[in-house]
Amino acid sequence: MKALIKAHGREGLWLQTAPVPDIGPDDVLIRINKTGICGTDIHIWNWDDWAKKTVPVPLITGHEFAGEIVELGRNVEGLNLGQRCSGEGHLIGKQSRQSRAGKFHLDPETRGIGVNEQGAFAEYLRLPSFNVVPLPDEISDDIGAILDPLGNAVHTALSFDLVGEDVLITGAGPIGIMAAAVARHAGARNVVITDINQDRLDLAAKVADVTPVNVTKTDLADVQARLKIMQGFDVGLEMSGNQVALDQMVEAMVMGGRIALLGIPPGKSPVDWSRIVFKAITLKGIYGREIFETWYKMIAMLQNGLDVSGIITHRFAVKDYAEGFAAMKSGKVVLDWRTT
Predict the structure, then answer these.
(1) What is the pLDDT of residue 340?
(2) Which residues pair with 33 in a beta bridge?
(3) Which of 156, 180, 268, 310 is exposed most, by the fewest CB atoms within 10 A?
(4) How many CA atoms lie within 13 A of 176 on its CB side?
């Protein structure tokens, strides 16, 4: 089969041939139709310090996908040949206290497909049947291929009650924009999204009913006044990993505000804890998706009118993958594995 492989410990990925994976009794074999390129894949492409410490070489990368089941392990029940699916890319253990309590997303033994284990940038993927998420007919392969990052957005946005609340999102990358769309769909009153990249903010305005703010040109306090947000934002979703953005968010929050943190800073960051304490702010770190509640929620919302299709800005055949990685600077990219 064709596969995008991190074949060497340097910048890039290589389109090579690899054996079709053999499956075990509890696995399925999925023929991949579409894959999304993720920020994690960019780190692996660039072979930065995190990738060097984390990713074994050689490795088939990629973890955002949609496809169909073409082989079932002998113990697999409840799934069918030809069934369209996506899947949870976090492979969990079953022995930890968290897993035994049903909090699978918190299992400390978690390993990631395309990061620690062979991934989805290939014509075929082996996946435990436990991780398979069937796709209803009304969800296209393109959307199925970005359910993983949409799940990050949903997990972050739904961490706190949003009905009637004023929400501030820092970071207008694809996940931040999708979180904005989710917040509006879930009943937020005002959703403001900030960034310093005007192209990203323009895309946010197209995808979701939000107020985009370029903080290099506009004072956030002026936007609050215009929207009649008198005491501050009720909920903050930090998606940028930028310390300046987090500091600005803390200052903009209402007393007793709540902040969900998905963005990952590049290193250690100074935090003015006194401001967080004296404003009685609740901080919640977000990792991955709640397995499988987040999947249930996002599929239900997509079936009920949530539209994030505009976040996909580029589509390429897999042979043009290098162009796809370059295009990630300005949007979200889907690769088609069924075209030559």
Answers:
(1) 62
(2) none
(3) 268
(4) 32
How many Å apart are CA 323 and CA 29, to the nearest integer? 28
Q: What is the DSSP string of 148-162?
A: HHHHHHHHHHTTS--
Please answer whether residues 187 and 169 qualify as being in contact, where contact means their C-beta atoms are separated by less than 8 angstroms: no
The distance from CA 227 to its chain's CA centroid, rounded to whole angstroms, is 29
Q: Find out whether 27 and 128 touch, Cβ atoms under 8 Å.
A: yes
d(CA 322, CA 318): 9
| H or E stretch at 168 | strand 166-170
Which residues touch 268 (CB under 8 Å, ≥6 apart)? none
Q: What is the CA radius of gyration of the chain?
A: 20
> Residue 267 has what pLDDT?
80
25 or 340, which is more confident?
25
Task: Judge contact between 92 and 46, C-beta under 8 A.
Answer: no
Q: What are the helix (H) ranges across the chain?
A: 39-46, 49-54, 97-100, 141-144, 147-157, 174-185, 198-207, 220-226, 243-252, 273-278, 293-303, 321-327
Report which secondary-structure segment, H or E, holds 211: strand 211-214
169 close to 239: Cβ distance less than 8 angstroms: yes
Q: How many Å from the N-terminal Cα to the C-terminal Cα in the chain?
A: 13
Q: Is the pTM of this model over 0.90?
A: yes
pLDDT band at residue 151 using 50, 70 and 90 as cut-offs = very high
Catalytic residue ranges? 40, 43
Nearest to 224 by CA among 204, 198, 248: 248
Query: How far is 115 from 104, CA to CA, in rounded Å?
Result: 18
Q: Residue range 131-143: average pLDDT? A: 97
Angle among Cα 83, 84, 90 to the nearest 5 degrees reads 110
Structural domains of the chain in order of their starting residue, each with its CATH number: 2-146+308-336 (3.90.180.10), 153-285 (3.40.50.720)
